[in-house]
Amino acid sequence: MRYLFLTLATVCAACDSPSITMAGATKTVVQVEQSTFSVYQLGDRVEVIRTNIEYGRDAKGIMARAIAAIPLATGCEVVPGSLDGDPALLTAKVHCPT
C-alpha cells in the first residue's frame, strides 16, 4: 500500500510539466472561473495544462477557459488556426505586441 501511494504521488507531481520541446519556458499559473491552468511560454509557442479536476457540468467550457488563459498569462494574442489539443493540454502560437 505504501508503494502504491509513493507511485501515485510521483505520477501526480509530474502532471504539471511541459513537453520536452518547451524546456526553459516561462510558467504562469492562471485561474479562469473554476479552472486552474499552468501556461508555459517559449517564444511564440505556449502550452496550457489544466491542473485541476473537472467533470460533468463543471467540465463544460474547459477549452474556452483554456484559450482565455493564454492572453491572461502571456499578454499575447492567440494566432488564429494555431490551437491544438484537448481539455487537459492545449498548444498554440501567440503574437505578442512589441
Task: Specify the structural class.
Answer: alpha+beta
* N-to-C CA distance: 54 Å
Radius of gyration: 14 Å
Biggest sheet character: 6 strands, antiparallel
> What's the β-strand tally?
6
C-alpha geometry: globular
Mean pLDDT: 87
Secondary structure tally, helices: 2
Portion in strands: 25-35%
The percentage helix is 25-40%
* SSE topology string: HEEEHEEE
Low-pLDDT ranges? none
Describe this structure in words.
This protein has 98 residues and is an alpha+beta fold. The protein contains two helices and six strands. It has helices spanning 2-13, 62-74; strands at residues 26-32, 35-42, 45-50, 77-78, 84-85, 89-95. Strands 1, 2, 3, 4, 5 and 6 form a six-stranded antiparallel β-sheet that branches. β5 (84-85) and β6 form a beta hairpin. The protein is globular, with a radius of gyration of 14 Å. The model has no long low-confidence stretch (mean pLDDT 87).
Features:
98 residues; alpha+beta; six-stranded antiparallel beta sheet; 2 helices; globular
Q: Quick gist of this model?
A:
The chain is α+β, with helices and mostly antiparallel strands and 98 residues long.
Topology overview:
Blueprint: H1 2-13, E1 26-32, E2 35-42, E3 45-50, H2 62-74, E4 77-78, E5 84-85, E6 89-95
